[in-house]
Amino acid sequence: MTASAVMIAVGLAMPAEAVTSITPATVTATQQLAVTEKLASDVYATVAPQFEVPILTNVAESESRHLAAIRELLAKRSITDPTSGDAVGVFDDPTVSARYVDLVAAARASLAQAAAVGIDIERGELGLLRTTGALPDLPRDVHNVVQNLIDGDTNHLDAFTSLHATAQGDPPGAVGLTLQTARVTAPPSGRYEVGTRLVLARQPVRTDAGVTVRWRATTETRARCEVRVRDGRATVELTRPGVCTVVGFAPSPSPDYLPYRVMRTYRAVP
Q1: What total number of domains does the chain contain?
Q2: Does position 156 have pLDDT exceeding 50, yes or no?
Q3: What is the mean pLDDT of residues 237-263?
Q4: Which residues touch 221 (CB under 8 Å, ≥6 apart)?
Q5: Is 267 helix (H, G, I), strand (E, B) or coil?
Q6: Can you tell me the distance from the alpha carbon of 203 to that of 191, in angstroms, rounded to the nearest whole number?
Q7: 139 and 201 housed in the same domain
Q8: Domain that residue 209 falls in
Q9: pTM for the whole thing?
């Protein structure tokens, strides 16, 4: 794949339409997209100078445009930007900060590993984008930006898959990717009433590498929610008003795998 193939035109201009109402779930999802796009942009921008490979440089620039599109959408709708003012590698959520450190460390190991990290990131972005695009009552401007980003990230995924195959010396389709996946059915991030108990997963949940996914509430949100594992289920109870962030994590079983992480952010309201 040529370098120009991954120079994605995101289409930052918003449709000329009145600003329609937006659901709380869409607000949360859009804010998550900003964090996810910044994470991708920051990882690629940090790693790209080490390898001087056009694909990494071009995708880093493309992800910066993705983030700009989301930020423009947030500003248009007067939604708080959770990435505002944060420098490269800096995130308000310590879980995202830790993921940034993990991804950069993994990507710096080799060009093949950098491509594998790119595949991991792009798959995560596409999952969140498709979930957002499927939300009910999605306004047209949000839908348009989401669809543009899906098109761009699909091209990024193809580019990193080709790069990984080349770096490994294997033909496409025969690449042993260092990624872990898991079937997690935790409810989407969003607003829920205080006292709600959500089923994060049936236990045990294991990644495709055979590692058990364990759940916890982040340190700064434990006063507002409680994660329990019993009767074959991992659940979180929203005990107090405020934000509860839960993380599912599985460590690397060997140097050939990346850690697995999945995160949900629930806002408990009275």
Answers
A1: 2
A2: yes
A3: 82
A4: 242, 243, 244, 245
A5: strand
A6: 25
A7: no
A8: 190-269
A9: 0.59
